Amino acid sequence: MGREQRLEYAASFEMCYQFRLLYYAGTQYPIMGALRMAYPYRYELFKRVNDANGKEKYVILSTFPSRPTGDEINDAFEGRTRDKVKKSSGFWGFLSGILST
Q: 44 with 59: CB under 8 angstroms?
């Protein structure tokens, strides 16, 4: 078996589990959340929350069909949603707004 065939075979593997702690930019403390994926399920984004009794827990913020980008993770933590489709402006935006209702 040649080198190219071995590399092609290794590239065909799919990730079956991933767990990654998330920190604030440039630090390794405190933990702000976690990103987890267990095949065949979606990526799950968790936020770390301190309990009243001094313990921590992780609450789910969002799920993603594929590995989220840094911007998608930041948006989820800030509670923002991104529109994938750019809205038309001006006359065409006015017409599409009237026709879509």
A: no
DSSP 65: S
Tell which residue, 49, 76, 72, 48, has the closest CA to residue 62. 76
Q: Greatest CA span in the chain, whole angstroms?
A: 63
Residue by residue, DSSP assigns 12-35 as T----EEEEEEESTT-S-SEEEEE
- Whether the model clears a pTM of 0.70, i.e. scores above it, the answer is no
Phi/psi for 96 (5° steps) reads -65, -30
Q: For residue 50, give the amino acid letter.
A: N
Cα atoms in the 13 Å half-sphere on the side-chain side of 54: 0
**Arithmetic mean of pLDDT over the chain:** 84
State whether residue 48 is helix, strand or coil: strand
